[in-house]
Structures are given as structure tokens and as C-alpha cells.
Amino acid sequence: MTSTAVVQAEAVAQEATRAALEAETLGMLAAVAHELRTPLSALAASAEMLEVADDPEDRRRFAAIIQRQSQRLNGIVEGLLEAYRINRGDAAAVDEVVDVRRLLRQVADDHRPLYPQHVFSVEVNGEPRVLTRASALAIVLGNLLSNAAKYSPPGSTVRVVARERGGRVEVRVRDQGPGIPPALRERVFEAGERCGQRGAGFGLGLYIARRICGAIGAQIRAEEPGDGKGACFVVTLQRGGAL
After folding, report:
1. Domain range enclosing 210
2. In 3D, which of 195, 223, 224 has the Cα closest to residue 207?
3. Please, what is the end-to-end C-alpha distance for the chain in angstroms?
4. For the chain, N or C: smaller number of CB within 10 Å?
């Protein structure tokens, strides 16, 4: 290959890389915009109704919606910032021994007011502890619970089960929604990816969860539920020592 051909090949490769990065950036921006649009619309509508509502019960209801959607927005922003900090290698964030039972209960308690029409069930076998970053793991688990509630019918249960397996700890989050086709179980972790029957939303929360898991040494996957109903996500972490 001549030097001219080499230069041309390198130029083509660089252009392909640039185009891929630009497409990924645009996909991320679209996913972020889509994820933010729903809570922002709910905030605007509820604030408008709160301003004109006379009935005290209506005012409490609209105020509760504003509070829930504000917390949802905060969760999205915190997830993005945490993924950025971890992937940047923020030295201020250090691993710690985390009580899985306590953290799961805390995350579930935080989500019950956000999704009052759903039941969050937490089952922990033994006293598992993991060595990780508590704030980062809380965002991963929170995104999975939010995702499960979003795609489950009102009145259904989001089940969270944690157990030790060898030197690892597995946390399973399962919903009672339409499920995920096998061919899409990897693609749901891509920013801006629609998912079959779950196509009303974008996978920003799952994208953030996958990025954070990769940075803290955890794994996350979607798998087939035992009875084939709903979706099931599994987070696997390294078992930690005593608190």
C-alpha cells in the first residue's frame, strides 16, 4: 500500500469514528430530551392547575404530583452526573462495604411515594454485603425500580430479590409488564433504544445503569423470568466484608 493510500485509509477511519461519535452524542441528547419531557410536562400542568384550584384536596394532589416529578427529575440528573464522575475517575469516590438489605429497603422506600399505584416487595436472603460505591449502586437500583414501575400496570408488584451466590451477590428486579423479547435484551441498555412492546419509553435509565455498573466492577443483564412473565434485570456484584 502506498503512502497516499495509507493516508486516505486513515482519513476514512477518522471520519467513520467522528460520524459514530456524533451519532452516539445525538442519540444521547434525544434520549435525555425524551426522558426529561414527561416530568417537565407534568410539572408545568400541575403547577398551572394548582394555581387555579380552590378545593384543598385538589391542591394537595397537584402539590404531590409536583413533588414526585421533581424527585424524578433529580434522579435523572443525579444518574447522569454519577455516570460522568465515575467514568472520569473521580478520586473522591471510594469503595465501601454496603449492607445490601439496608440499601434495597432505602431505595424501595424512596420509590413508593413516586409510584403510589405499585407495590415494591424486597426479599433478601441472608445478610449480603458488597464492596462498591453506595451512591452509585443506589442509582443503578433506583433506575431499575423506576423502569419496572413505568412498564408495569397499576396495582402490580415490583419484586426485588437479593442473594449470595459463591463470592458474588445477585440482585434481581422483576416487573409484571409486557416483558422484553430475547433479541432486544442487550439493546435495551443503549441510549435512545426503544424496546418492542415497551416502546413508549427510551432506555436512558438502563443506559446509565449499564455505564455505572461497568465503572464499579458490577455486571447487569436482562434475563428470562422463570415463568416467562414480565421482565427481569440482574445486577451482580463482588461480595464485601463485614461492616
Report:
1. 96-238
2. 195
3. 62
4. N
pTM: 0.73
Residue entry with cell 423470568: 225
pLDDT at 60: 86
Query: What integer pLDDT is reported at residue 34 of this predicted model?
Result: 59
Q: Which residue has the cell 447522569?
A: 80
CATH code: domain of residue 138: 3.30.565.10
Do residues 75 and 114 both lie within one domain? Answer: no
Beta-bridged to residue 170, according to DSSP, are 163, 236
Residue after which a domain boundary falls, among 23, 55, 88? 88
Contact 96, 133 (CB under 8 A): yes
Residue 131, strand partner residues: 97
pLDDT reported for residue 194: 52
In angstroms, the CA 195 to CA 149 distance is 16
